[in-house]
Amino acid sequence: MSAASPSTPRTDTPIRPRAAVLAAYLAIALMWGSSFLLIKVALGSASHSGFSVGGVAIGRIVLGAAALVVVMVLSRTRWPRELWLWGHLTVVGLLLCLVPFLLYAWAGQYLPSGMSAILNATTPIWTALAVTASTRGTAHGERLTRGQVAGVALGVVGVAVVMGLWRLVDDASFAASLPAQLACLGATACYGAGFAWMRRFVSGRHGHGSLTVAAGQVGSAAVIGLVLSPLLVPHLVVGGSAPGLTPTLALVALGVLGTGLAYVWNNVVLVEWGSLAASSVTYLTPLVGVVAGVLVLGERITWNEPVGALVVVVSVLLVQKRLPRRPSQP
């Protein structure tokens, strides 16, 4: 995504030591960057029975929502009472949590985690397009500058390089993995649409902090996921046997830390350092994702992946020049 809440953070939060804010920033980069690794581990392997695609997606949302509820209770933060706000948070929960998490979990069966991490970095590009489209014709409509248009075009080139589209001609294995790569891009498109929805219908229209908005959107996604679980999770695990310890721990970390507490850490960075600093996590997550995949899973990278990733990062820099900065959540 992922994805920081676009609401304005509350300013009554006490100033924290710089080391604590830096630790929160690095924790976000580590957790969101390694989310793709955790997805693959949670799905299981030949040596460890794992969770199904639906089990991973809904499991991480429910665990993340539980973690955020605990934080809300401990911090005595009030929940929204506005029905209109809950309606919009439900839409955002679908776009920023349920749908992209399902797509990433499905893609994780077929793609290296590093590839998913790199494609996730295109979120700001989709956000630029979605914000421009959704605000067109309104009083606060946004138009892409020439530099941003160039950034979008460069991003398309970068994605093509990362994917290695030229291999479609003579590489059957690449053609087989193409749907999974497109699923990752579909997930980032959902993130872009979710941020655009937040910007138009939620941001600046309520008096709640970003923690409340995060808990609301993840909580809404958890409720919908549980309601749809008989359809989305006909089998919680793969192979009928109980998941191994390693996949279980991976899912817990993915949910509690990556989907839950990371929002809290991101809120700390937003309050203390501002949205520009928080958005720079976008550039660290693909690096963390690729390195984690290589070191932990022994994944191999080809020349086009780092080259394409660099092109994508440059394109994101161009696109983010004027649009509201939002870090991308996996």
UniProtKB/TrEMBL annotation:
EamA domain residues are 25-163, 181-319
Q: What compartments host this protein?
A: Membrane
| InterPro entries in the cross-refs | AA-Vitamin_Transporters, EamA_dom, EmrE-like
Tagged with keyword Glycosyltransferase: no
- What Pfam families does its record include? EamA
The way this protein sits in the membrane is described as: Multi-pass membrane protein
This protein's name: Drug/metabolite transporter (DMT)-like permease
Organism phylogeny: Bacteria, Bacillati, Actinomycetota, Actinomycetes, Kineosporiales
